[in-house]
Design goal:
Elements: H1 2-20, H2 25-52, E1 67-71, H3 82-92, E2 97-103, H4 121-131, E3 136-144, H5 158-173, E4 178-184, H6 191-207, E5 211-215, H7 224-232, H8 240-247, E6 252-255, H9 265-282, E7 288-294, H10 310-324, E8 331-336, H11 343-354
Parallel strand pairs: 1-2, 1-8, 2-3, 3-4, 4-5, 5-6, 6-7, 7-8
Helix pairs in contact: 2-9, 3-4, 5-6, 9-10, 10-11
Length: 360
């Protein structure tokens, strides 16, 4: 055992001597510089987000009755019944929820949508209109894009875009009050996506129904999406300019302001405040801007449930709104998602943001 320890000591001393050698002067300087380049921006960003989460919330930064919620596929495939809708109606009564994004897809990779995917859509639409007057039922359609792998929907193909528009027409013919798209991973600057939105807008305007989309987060640092794309192949964020181009083409844009990898609640809230400001700066005043609330709990590299709380998201949203455009009317939050929500999530939403009537 002692011989092994002596051998281990010699093994450890060898690199230490090399590191102390005068010849290691430049490697040490380079290593120190790299450490500074990596650590200092991270510390600076964390401090900035923490400061962004501080301060007083402005009066009047509460629901404008333009909130939305993503609902799972069970609402259109036969699993949900009248009693479920009655319970849901009671759940949202008195809150600012006006729009339901009901999962009616997914689309096929060629852009088509089998009608068998939403057999109970008519029941849901009629029941919502009867039970919760004034609430709109949108068809939530989406698919994986072939932007980072061989499989998925290819928007660069004109035939695929034409098929998506046909699917939207099909879903509106089924009676939905609007159509909501969530296509991921969608890279910043995708001109084919903008072309698709232009074509969809022609349809929705002719039908006098809203077109809405789920949007990626905006670069928290300039050109961060380009850096992330070069390093990982996954440019998570959109540029603020691309976000603006999308927002000009739709009636509603809902920022998926969750799955941020933030390790602390204060940093997450500061990040949401920053995202709110960035989005408000470029969203047209005639477009509804909605900030996402995480009504789910996960623990992985991209989402720390103890940090990404509804309370932090609501506070961050109100801080960003108050600092940037407190009186903006076309603004709200979007709840993700009904089937993973816990009672505390609903309480945080109602108490922090969503009540329009006393005692809701």
């Amino acid at each position: 055992m002692r011989a092994r320890l002596r051998g281990l000591g010699r093994t450890l001393r060898t690199p230490l001597r090399a590191w102390r050698s005068p010849r290691a002067r430049w490697p040490k300087r380079i290593a120190a510089a790299l450490a500074v380049l990596l650590v200092v921006p991270l510390v600076t960003a964390a401090v900035s987000l923490r400061i962004n989460y501080a301060g007083d919330i402005e009066d009047g930064t509460r629901t404008r009755s333009r909130d939305a919620i993503w609902l799972g596929h069970a609402w259109v495939d036969g699993r949900k019944k009248d009693a479920d809708l009655d319970a849901f109606a009671e759940r949202i009564r008195g809150t600012g929820i006006r729009d339901l994004y009901v999962h009616a897809g997914p689309l096929e990779h060629d852009g088509t949508l089998p009608a068998a995917r939403y057999p109970r859509a008519r029941w849901l639409i009629d029941a919502v209109h009867r039970t919760i007057p004034g609430v709109r039922v949108h068809a939530w359609l989406g698919d994986e894009l072939a932007t980072e792998g061989p499989e998925g929907l290819r928007l660069e193909r004109a035939a695929s875009r034409v098929a998506v528009v046909r699917s939207a027409k099909q879903i509106l013919d089924a009676g939905f009050d609007g159509v909501h798209f969530d296509l991921e991973p969608l890279h910043s600057g995708d001109r084919d996506y903008l072309s698709l939105l232009d074509d969809l807008r022609v349809l929705t305007r002719a039908r006098d129904v809203p077109l809405s989309v789920a949007a990626h987060q905006i670069d928290p640092l300039p050109a961060l999406h380009s850096v992330a794309g070069a390093l990982t192949g996954h440019p998570k964020w959109w540029s603020q300019a691309f976000f603006a181009e999308v927002a000009r083409r739709v009636d509603q844009i809902a920022v998926m302001s969750y799955d941020t990898a933030m390790p602390l609640e204060s940093l997450y809230g500061g990040y949401v405040a920053q995202q709110t400001t960035l989005a408000l700066e470029v969203t047209p005043r005639d477009t509804d801007l909605l900030m996402g609330l995480p009504f789910y709990y996960e623990e992985d590299m991209s989402h720390h449930g103890h940090a990404e709380t509804v309370a932090a998201a609501v506070r961050g949203t109100r801080l960003g709104l108050g600092r940037t455009d407190r009186d903006r009317e076309r603004f709200g939050v979007a709840i993700y998602v009904d089937f993973a929500a816990r009672e505390g999530d609903w309480t945080a939403y109602r108490e922090g943001w969503g009540c329009v009537t006393a005692g809701c």
